[in-house]
Amino acid sequence: MKLLSSVLVLLAILTSPSAQALEVGVLGGLNFWSPSATSGLGSITTSAGSNLAAGAYVQKGFNPLFDVELGLMYVKKKADLTLLGSVSSSSYNAIQIPLILRTGFIPGNFFNVGAGAYYETVSGGTPSGQKSSDYGLVGSAQVRFPLAPLTKFIVDARYLMGLSEQSTDTTNISIKNRGIEVLAGLSFGI
Q1: DSSP strand E in the chain: where?
Q2: How many domains does one find in the chain?
């Protein structure tokens, strides 16, 4: 409930009338989830393929240097963990809420970088041996190509580093979320 209240307050701030720009956008692409796993029982290797990610965001400019972006992403995750020759597959869908502070270095905001935090919760059931929610840090590099007035094509690369322990069996194994998202989409100025 606390998270929902925080998101609603932030949405109210982001959509308040101001002289600064407001932007909405849609993104889709690939999620390369590769959890970091360790165990006292032996070495763990992880292998992950590409999975789908899609979502939308609202971005509010506060001054010429900084924008705040709040997103809502639907992310598919699948990886195999191998411990002592035994393979365990983990596959689930998640809802991700990234909050990113962005800054552009080139006039016209053609290229920008961002850093922030994310919260994620499992959608449709908890994966075996893992917790149902996560939080962590996100870094982003984004390129924006103007298509028409107030419309841009966006390519965004993100690195996500989970901070919370994901394993429910912490005496034998430790799992932290790590991932790269490569996204593309459209943004529309309002």
Answers
A1: 22-33, 36-39, 44-48, 50-61, 66-83, 86-104, 111-123, 133-148, 151-162, 173-176, 178-189
A2: 1
